[in-house]
């Protein structure tokens, strides 16, 4: 992810814990790639900030950037809409806040944690 961001002229600051489950990590990578690309292209960002936290059998990811704030509500285009579909298919949710600054919030179920709770005997 860091190499891809550098090619775009940006850096990604990752903070917090990150999921062990491969499918969730791969989805995180897709989310970060799309957000970095959009932040550079639409906001002129040079840094992306991604905070990840595990709570209540779910992963919470919050992404912002240092680019110019949106002038209006963000309209989801192809990339963000496609990302939303993938996240929702995985049982997650997406929230997009445009004003006063861009914030993308993602919640994904922790499949390993759910499995452990349901089948731990």
Q: How would you sum up this structure, described in words?
A:
By secondary structure, the protein is α+β, with helices and mostly antiparallel strands. 40% of the residues lie in helices and 29% in strands. The chain contains four helices and five strands; from the N terminus they run H-E-H-E-E-H-E-E-H. A five-stranded mixed sheet has the order 1-2-3-5-4. Strand 2 (47-55) and strand 3 form a beta hairpin. Residues 113-121 have low confidence and may be disordered.
In brief:
With 121 residues, this protein is α+β, with helices and mostly antiparallel strands. It is built from four helices and five strands. The C terminus is likely disordered.
List the helices and strands and how they pair.
Blueprint: H1 2-7, E1 11-16, H2 22-43, E2 47-55, E3 58-65, H3 78-89, E4 93-97, E5 103-109, H4 111-119
Parallel strand pairs: 1-2
Antiparallel strand pairs: 2-3, 3-5, 4-5
Helix pairs in contact: 2-3
Task: Write out key terms for the chains shown.
40% helix; 121 residues; 4 helices; alpha+beta; single chain; five-stranded mixed β-sheet
Order of neighbouring strands in the sheet with most strands: 1-2-3-5-4
Unreliable stretches covering 5 or more consecutive residues: 113-121
Query: What is the 3D shape?
Result: globular
Number of helices: 4
Largest sheet: 5 strands, mixed
Q: SS-based structural class?
A: alpha+beta
Q: Alpha-carbon distance between the termini?
A: 38 Å
Q: Round the mean pLDDT to the nearest integer and report it.
A: 88
Strand content: 25-35%
Number of strands: 5
Q: Over the alpha carbons, how many angstroms does the gyration radius reach?
A: 15 Å
Order of helices and strands: HEHEEHEEH
Percent range of helical residues: 40-55%
């Amino acid at each position: 992810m860091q190499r891809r961001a550098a090619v775009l002229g940006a850096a990604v600051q990752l903070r917090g814990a990150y999921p062990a489950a491969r499918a969730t990590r791969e989805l995180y990578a897709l989310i970060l790639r799309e957000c970095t690309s959009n932040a550079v292209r639409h906001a002129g960002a040079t840094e992306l900030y991604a905070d990840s936290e595990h709570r209540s059998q779910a992963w919470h990811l919050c992404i912002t950037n240092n680019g110019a704030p949106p002038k209006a509500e963000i309209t989801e285009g192809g990339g963000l809409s496609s990302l939303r579909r993938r996240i929702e298919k995985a049982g997650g949710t997406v929230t997009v806040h445009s004003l006063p600054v861009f914030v993308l919030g993602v919640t994904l179920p922790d499949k390993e944690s759910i499995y452990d709770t349901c089948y731990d005997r």
